[in-house]
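(Deposited chain)
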Amino acid sequence: MLVQLAKGMLSVKTGDEGPRHDPYGYIEWTLVTPYKGKSAQLHCGLAEFAVIDGKHIEDDPTSAFEQYIGVTLKSLERAMHRIRSRCKCGCTEFRTMDGYPGETMAVCTECQNIVYCDFDKSAVE
């Protein structure tokens, strides 16, 4: 998912890491700026670290990332939830449907648009 911020575009990626028999989930926040060499990434999972403008940070990476982007992660998560809770037509009622194996879609009950889609990689492995 992409979110527009004043400093650039923020992408959010989720997945799993660790051994195949006991994987751990992670979430990775990446800010891409239009300025050369300026970027930030926060990895929260088995390991927690940030990479800001090429510098690797392991001491309190979340607050360093929040300070760099100028927004708290909690407010970003609230904004992403709001984005995912309303269709373009204004409707807030969805039904879930299964797509391909591991894929779950939320479909608007009014206009039948796909509002968002989640993919569970472990369902197909």
Notes: The first strand starts at residue 2 and ends at 4. The radius of gyration is 17 Å. The CA atoms of residues 4 and 10 lie 6 Å apart. The beta strands are 2-4, 9-17, 24-32, 39-44, 48-52, 55-57, 94-98, 103-108, 114-119.
